[in-house]
Amino acid sequence: MEVSEHSWVVNAIQSLDPSRRCYRMIEGVLLEKTVKEVLPAVLRNKEGLEEVISRLKKKKVIVEFEAKYKIRTRKADAEVKDESGRKEGAAQGVLVGPVGGSEA
Fold first, then answer.
1. What angle do CA 81, 85, 86 make, to 5 degrees?
2. Which of 27, 30, 37, 49 is the most exposed place for a label (fewest CB within 10 A)?
3. Residue 85 in this model has a pLDDT that exceeds 60
4. Residues paired with residue 32 on neighbouring β-strands, in sequence order
5. Are the C-beta atoms of residues 24 and 10 closer than 8 Å to each other?
6. In angstroms, what is the C-alpha Rg of the chain?
7. d(CA 10, CA 4)
8. Half-sphere exposure in the Cβ direction for 56 (13 Å, CA)
9. Which residue in 73, 78, 9, 69 sits closest to 42, CA to CA?
10. Domains of the chain, each with CATH number or no CATH
């Protein structure tokens, strides 16, 4: 739905004068800009949405395929083990003695 809304906006403002005033709502705040500033941002958002949708579709197909043929990947299991090992190794530091200790 959002991709189609972005397409409508692009079609509506594409033929307008680039210096014409344009309003854009970002997180509930209405901003006054020019068509020249808004059009590239709307196109980037539209492309990003289309990319996310295609990734989700691919992921869905992969998950369905794995479920249908009862496939489990070892890569996912190995990544979990590797990450836990990295966390332990990353916590290394310098061991310091107690403050105010006596020097002999």
1. 120
2. 27
3. no
4. 23
5. no
6. 26
7. 10
8. 6
9. 9
10. 2-77 (1.10.287.370)
